[in-house]
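Let's practice the habit of predicting before peeking. Look at the sequence and jot down your guess about where helices and strands might fall. Then scroll down.
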Amino acid sequence: MMLPSGNISSHPVSFILLGMPGLQSAQFWIAFPFCTMYIVAILGNITLLHIIRIDHTLHGPMYLFLAMLAITDLVLSSSTQPKMLAIFWFHAHEIEYHACLIQVFFIHTFSSVESGILMAMALDRYVAICFPLQHSSILTLSVVVKLGAVVLMRGLFLVSPFCFMVSRMPFCDNQVIPQSYCEHMAVLKLVCADTRVNRGYGLFVAFSVAAFDMTIISISYAMILRAVLRLPSGEASLKAFGTCASHVCVILALYIPALFSFLTHRFGHRVPRMVHITFANLYLLLPPMLNPIIYGVRTKQIRDRVVQGCCGKDP
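Done guessing? Here is the structure:
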């Protein structure tokens, strides 16, 4: 639906989300694994938050960052999955204009927040392994909260401008978005005006956030690797590597599909749309599903708590 104003209007009443172009006939069945992944993400992250909340021994920096990551994952997955499942199962393709922009805001803000939290967790691992005696004095509760606040404010301040810019641009008659959620570039392609400034700012935000966070993460793990290789005990080295292995898996699960989706939107015109849309859906769902599983398996305190809860034992 459009406001009746010829070829161009201030903005449309709504957009049409196609879901997964090329797989419309199979979307009903594709929704089941996506729904399963979403349920696992919700239950896993809520369980993680509950365990961290009730166990006071888990109120250290690592677990507070993990709680922030769980909250971010809940927001990130819930901003897209309910609507996507409604499209797949109930053919609810229409999304109201402002709801679409709100979805753009939440997706990009909390993607930035997730990246920032992973960076903060890499710094935490660096301090814990390279300066174990000073860890508690360097990463105090106040420092952890300030890091979390900075990461959140960075996402808010960087993403808000391009949402504001898009909201003030005229749109063409075409209101069809060929994917299952509203993403900045997908919405921008429907604008009937020069979008070079918007595209340039979007690239700046994406590359500045990713480049900064990945640089800090890379430096942190290079320092960790150097420190671990100097440990005299092989058992201590293995334990240190094991502590970092889960974090590396989480980083790869976020950055690989996210970068693929981002670069494909702008430069991968020859990539089949089906492949692009699949990765676009996975990068917002795979990390929220995997994070609580990976940390639950790799972290003894959390694993023991889950076992105790399942077996009905007191801690």
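How did you do? DSSP finds twelve helices and three strands in the chain.
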